[in-house]
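User: Fold this; tokens only.

Assistant: Input:
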Amino acid sequence: MKQNIVNNQSPPKIVIVGGGAGGLELATKLGATLGEQGKASILLVDRSPTHIWKPLLHEVAAGTLNAFHDEENYFCHAARNHYTFQLGALSKLNRSEKTITIAPVYSKENEIIVDERTITYDRLVIAVGSTSNDFGTAGASEHCIYLDSRDKADVFHRKFLNFYIAAHSSSQPSAQSQQPSTQTDVEQTDVEQTDVKQAQQISISIIGGGATGVELAAELHFAAQQYVRLGLKELDAKNVSISLIEAGPRILPILPEKIARRASEELAKLGVKVYVGDKVVSINKTSIETASGKTIPAQLKVWCAGIKAPEFLKQLDGLETNRINQLVVNQTLQTSLDDTIFSMGDCAQCARGEGYVPPRAQAAHQQAQLLAKNLVRSLHNKPLKTFQYKDHGSLVSLSREDSVGVLMGRLMGNVNIHGLLAKWIYLSLYRSHQLAIHGWYKTLILIISDALGRSTGQRTKLH
């Protein structure tokens, strides 16, 4: 059955599709400025019931961050911040009638929880983020985990943890294997010892030497040490083989070569094998083949080598998209063919000089700030402000104590930083996001909670 939600109220209706970093920040700000005063109805739509900051996914995958602690429930957040929330995925757009269709929501048993709905809007913001782009590489979709969502990060974590559980269980000898009395028993013991040896080794390949791939490699090394410290000693950290494969001439192309070189050196100290200038051409169940002819063993494979916007954007009632499915927007963040529809973040192509605004969290944050103003101006038929992206630099986390990167500012110019200072600044980026969606009081509580969690070791996830 199809529900129709008709907007007969006098306050205009702003619908935001996508509750990522930018979308949730925008809903929070509009709720505080328009929703609380009844000047507009703010609705956020997302396919997931909870939000987690996407740059944290490598920690979720490694199990060094408990996502249940850092996720935010949209229903609860909406109730506190003067907007409403609808669970579901955008499936259709009707620009002439100003409606969107939200697909049905199903249970794990494939039963319909919520029927398909049609929702009207006065202004629509599409902020659905991005997905992994495997460029059609043979075997990638069958054998790789794409680290682009909380669910997929959880899948990787379970697979990674299963190696430790298997090794731990296999190390417990049975009564028969302790005292072999016959030739058959001796042969069985040899088989069990072989299985233990196999369980005590794991090979992981990460395809893509950008920030996500580098951070995941470093975090997996840290996780291997943590698991041993917490009792899973049978799979030693030195037997966790981690490979990072980059098709370009070096890792971290967004950073200066000097900083990228330091990151490579730090990864080498951690035992991570870095392959550069070698494109992955095919992937199978147990290994990866590269253009140079290398065969790299890999029991677990993660794809972090590129992004694209979701495929369904190409079918949104004729809106203009580019080759990677991004919606084309102008400098006011309005879509090129419809002034009442805006787009932001990874799913939007916004021109910047001779290129385009990069798909980064800081860009989504800045666009949310501008849209909070432009949506109000649009509703009052006032001229809209144009988006000017300000690159504040990039930071990459290499371990619990170290980060590398470059900060960009007017007073000091470009400053290369590393070590503990870089790590503190890196962590402050997440605190800025928390501040935008929670305010000072709750952010302070979360900082205290995180500190207590680290002191007790309870944040490492072993289930």
